[in-house]
Amino acid sequence: MRQFPIAAAAVVFIAILGAAPAYGASASISVSPSAAPSGSTVHISGSIPVKKCPASDGATITSDSALFPPDGFGPTATRDSQGAFAVDYTVPTSTPPGSYPVGLRCGGGNVGVSATLTVTPAGGPQTGAGGAAHHSASAWTAIGAVCLLLAAVLLGVRRRAARIR
After folding, report:
1. What percent of the chain has pLDDT over 90?
2. Residue 83, CB half-sphere, CA atoms under 13 Å: how many?
3. Helices in the chain by DSSP H: which ranges?
4. What are the angstrom distances between the C-alpha of 57 and each of 68, 96, 98, 129?
5. How many beta carbons lie within 10 A of that of residue 107, not counting itself?
6. Domain 22-120 CATH (choose: 2.60.40.1930, 3.20.20.190, 3.40.190.10, 3.40.50.620)
7. Where is pLDDT greater, at 24 or 144?
8. Is-contact 115 123, C-beta < 8 A?
9. What is the spatial distance between Cα 43 and Cα 84, in angstroms, rounded to a whole number?
10. Residue 125 has what pLDDT?
11. Average pLDDT, whole number, for the chain?
12. Domain-wise residue ranges, the chain
């Protein structure tokens, strides 16, 4: 009697696997370069088998809404007769640094493959009080200047006191 529920579960599991689209078996996606600053252009390419999704259906590139504003759906690329596609995409300057999974949809369903695009900070490193810094360091500069001036005054007073003795 215990074998029946196990056998039924196995049949249901096999039926679910058979009904699920098997895009991932031969579908592919790549992003080049895999790391780029916001504002730069990346090349996204790949392939979706035409047996699973007709070539007339475009490949919609997906990710987070930060990478593809406002809803996470990026450009839809046309596919050739073999299912291959390629598109150049400019990463929005508003995209914060981080790693973003880039996936595919075709025919209204997720394909099940992904690549990762790492968005790096734009511009130079944010160090010191140079032009790359986002905050002002003028207060700290003023404090430092006052400290140097005070040290100079104290040194002058000390030397004058030493001469008088």
Report:
1. 55
2. 19
3. 3-19, 138-164
4. 20, 31, 31, 52
5. 16
6. 2.60.40.1930
7. 144
8. no
9. 14
10. 58
11. 81
12. 22-120
For 87, the 3-state DSSP assignment is strand
Query: Tell me: the pLDDT tens digits for 91-104?
Result: 999 999 999 999 99
| Cβ proximity of 28 and 46 under 8 Å | yes
Side-chain-side CA neighbours of 55 within 13 Å: the count stands at 8
CB 68, CB 62: distance < 8 Å: yes
Q: How far apart are CA 11 and CA 59, in angstroms?
A: 33
pTM: 0.60
Asked if 161 and 154 touch (Cβ cutoff 8 Å), the reply is no
Q: Which pLDDT does position 9 carry in this prediction?
A: 44
